[in-house]
Amino acid sequence: MGPVGNPEGWLFRIAHNTALDFLRAATQQALRSAEEVDMIADEADTVASRQIASASLRTFMRFRSPSARA
């Protein structure tokens, strides 16, 4: 590689590209972290889902038609 005609511009370009690489890597890391958090089961959510399903089933069983009860 020969001498650089504009060392300030050359250095700016290196700094700019390095900053973009850093931001891209940080974005990818944030996306991976968000995906990992989404995959973790929330026990409170599971309990709430079971309670909702139970209440729905009780409601369904109360409103069955009389012919279905026989």
Written overview of the protein:
- With 70 residues, this protein is mainly alpha-helical.
- The protein is built from three helices and no strands.
- The longest helix has 33 residues.
- The protein is rod-shaped and about 95 Å long.
Task: Describe, in short, the structure shown.
The protein has helices at 7-39, 43-62, 66-69.
Structure keywords:
3 helices; 81% helix; 70 residues
The largest sheet is: none
Strand content: under 5%
Gross geometry: rod-shaped
Averaged pLDDT, please? 81
Low confidence ranges: none
Topology overview:
Elements: H1 7-39, H2 43-62, H3 66-69
